[in-house]
Specification:
370 residues, Nucleotidyltransferase, domain 5, five-stranded mixed β-sheet, binds 5'-O-[(R)-(carboxyoxy)(hydroxy)phosphoryl]adenosine, binds zinc ion
Length: 370
C-alpha cells in the first residue's frame, strides 16, 4: 500500500554489503555485494578486507537497490542501518553511509540491531510477525534463542551459545575435512549422501542439569576433529559423507529440541528460524517434523533472506517508522557489541517521526523504560 513507510536498509556487519528497500512488509529490492570469495582463501572473514570491500561496494549497491525498487531516494520515509553487533570497522562503513544519506536527504535515521533484523525479515515472506515471536537465530556469528514480544522494542534473550556459533562449527569442521569456506553449504550437500547415525557425536549441554536454552558446539567440534584424526592416524579413509551427516545431525538435533522446548515452556505456538544456518536443509526438515508434532507453526524465510542482507534492516526500519519509534541522532555510532535487548539506538533527543511535540516526551520515555 502506498501509505506504508518506504525504507532503505543498509547492512555491513560482516562480509556482505546489503542494501534493501521495503514498503511496509513488502520487499521492493534486495541488493547484495559479497566479499566472501576474497575471504575464502584465508578460511574466514578478515575484518580489514571486509571494511575495504564495503567502502567500495556501498554507493553502487545503494544505487542498484534504488533502481531495482524503481523509487527515488527522495521518496524514502527513512534510512535504517545495522548499528551492531558486528565487526567494528565494517559496521562503521554502513553507519557512515546511512548518516550521510539521511543528512543529505533530510530523512530520519534508524540505527537498528542486527539480530532483531534477522527476525523481522520474516515479515517480508510470511506477513506480520505474531506477538510474541519465538526466534532461533543461527549464523556464523550468533546462536540465540530469543523471545520477542515486540520486535521494535522488546526482545528477550532466553539462551545463547557459550562458545562457538553454530555456523562457526560448520566452518571449522569443513576446514578439518578440507572442504573450503564457508563450510555450511558443502556439509549440507555432502550430508545428504551420508548416514546421520553412522557416528554418535555428542549433543552439547543436553544433560538434565544443563541450562535448558544455552548451546555449546566446541565439545562437538573437538570430538569430530579427534575422530577424523584417529582415522587418519590409523591410515584409514575418512568417510566424509558420514562424518558430515553425523556432525550436522548433532547440531540440528540440539537446536531444534531446545527451540521447541522454549516454545512449549513459554506457551508460544510458532517458531521462526533465521541466520545463515537456517538455510540448512536438515535443520529445516527436522524443525518442520518436531514443530508439527508439538503443534507449533514454523516460519523460516527463504535462504537469501536468512543470510545477512539489507532487506532485513529495511524491514525492521519500516516497522520502527510504522510504530512511530524514535529516530536515531546523526551522532549515531556503531556498537560492535550492541546487546540484543537494544533493538534500536534512539537518539539522545529522541523524537518520533511525524508526531507533535507533546507526544515526543511520552514516546521517548516509553521507549526508555519499557
Ligand atoms: O548469517 P550469515 O550469512 O552471516 C553471519 O552473520 O554469520 O551466516 C553465515 C554462516 C556460515 O557459518 C555458513 O557456513 C553458514 O551460515 N551456512 C550454513 C548453510 N549455509 C550457510 N550452515 C549450514 N548449512 C547451510 N546450508
Ligand atoms: Zn547475521
Amino acid at each position: 500500500m502506498a501509505d506504508e513507510p518506504l525504507v532503505l536498509g543498509i547492512e555491513t556487519s560482516c562480509d556482505e554489503t546489503g542494501v534493501g528497500i521495503v514498503r511496509g512488509t513488502t520487499l521492493l529490492a534486495d541488493a547484495v555485494a559479497s566479499s566472501v570469495d576474497t575471504h575464502a582463501r584465508f578460511g574466514g572473514v578478515v575484518p580489514e578486507i571486509a571494511s575495504r570491500a564495503h567502502l567500495e561496494a556501498m554507493v553502487p549497491t545503494i544505487e542498484r537497490a534504488l533502481k531495482e525498487a524503481g523509487v527515488g531516494a527522495r521518496d524514502l520515509d527513512g534510512i535504517a542501518v545495522t548499528a551492531g553487533p558486528g565487526l567494528a570497522g565494517a559496521l562503521l562503513v554502513g553507519v557512515s553511509a546511512a548518516k550521510a544519506y539521511a543528512y543529505a536527504l533530510g530523512k530520519p535515521l534508524y540505527g537498528v540491531n542486527h539480530l532483531a533484523s534477522h527476525i523481522c525479515v520474516d515479515q517480508l515472506e510470511h506477513g506480520p510477525l505474531p506477538e510474541p515471536t519465538m526466534a532461533l537465530l543461527v549464523s556464523g556469528g550468533h546462536s540465540s534463542l530469543l523471545l520477542a514480544p515486540d520486535i521494535t522494542r522488546d526482545v528477550r534473550p532466553l539462551g545463547a551459545t557459550i562458545d562457538d556459533a553454530a555456523g562457526e562449527a560448520f566452518d571449522k569442521i569443513a576446514r578439518v575435512l578440507d572442504l573450503g569456506f564457508p563450510g555450511g553449504p558443502v556439509i549440507d550437500r555432502l550430508a545428504k549422501e551420508g548416514d546421520p547415525k553412522a557416528i554418535a557425536f555428542p549433543r552439547g549441554l543436553s544433560g538434565s542439569r544443563d541450562p535448558a536454552y544455552d548451546f555449546s558446539f566446541s565439545g562437538l567440534k573437538t570430538s569430530v576433529a579427534r575422530w577424523i584424526e584417529a582415522k587418519r592416524a590409523a591410515g584409514e579413509d575418512v568417510p566424509v559423507r558420514d562424518v558430515a551427516a553425523s556432525f550436522q545431525e548433532a547440531v540440528v538435533d540440539v537446536l531444534t529440541r531446545k527451540a521447541v522446548r522454549a516454545c512449549k515452556d513459554e506457551g508460544v505456538d510458532h517458531l521462526m528460524i533465521g541466520g545463515g544456518v537456517a538455510a540448512n536443509s536438515r535443520l529445516r526438515a527436522l524443525a518442520e517434523e518436531r514443530c508439527e508434532r508439538a503443534g507449533i507453526r514454523l516460519r523460516v524465510p527463504r535462504p537469501g533472506l536468512c543470510t545477512d542482507n539489507g532487506a532485513m534492516v529495511a524491514a525492521l526500519g519500516a516497522e520502527m517508522v510504522a510504530r512511530n519509534r524514535p529516530a536515531s541522532d546523526l551522532e549515531l555510532s556503531a556498537d560492535s557489541s550492541l546487546p540484543v535487548t537494544e533493538t534500536h539506538v534512539p537518539g539522545a533527543h529522541a523524537h518520533a517521526h511525524g508526531v507533535g511535540h507533546d507526544h515526543v516526551h511520552e514516546i521517548s520515555k516509553d521507549n526508555l523504560y519499557s
